[in-house]
Amino acid sequence: MANFSFDIVSDFDKAEMNNVFLQTEREITTRYDFKGTPAAVEWLDDKTGFKLIGANQWQLDAILDIIRKKLASREQSSKTLDLSNEPVESNLKSTWEIPFKQGLSQDNAKLITKKLRDEVPKVKAQIQGDEVRVTSSSKDDLQKVMSLLRSIDFDFPLSFTNFR
pTM score, two decimals? Predict the structure, then answer.
């Protein structure tokens, strides 16, 4: 009997994030309400997040709103953005560093495996580092797992990889 499996990961598409960055940058340069202000978006070190720059908190929120719209139009989750850092204001300029969430924490992985044990007992879920491997003898059970996890509103992004 064949065993089927896939991995549950919390990751982002680097190419799509690059597209979101470029589109956001283009929209900031064309918007009238940003003319003559320090409004901009930059990469955090090694493209691990965005650094928003604006004259005040209102501009930072407007730039974040643009980023969220661009993420949605490219079918990416805005849960990828880690908004836990506070904006920093200095010299008539505000900056906000927003890193990307990447990898499942142990607590999140345990939450997923517990949910799967309770809801779909036919599948086997194993925590492997920062991902969860789900195995079953039936592809239908794996489809149930995917639809179940998509229906739950986690505070971190989920994606499915390595279908076998």
Answer: 0.81
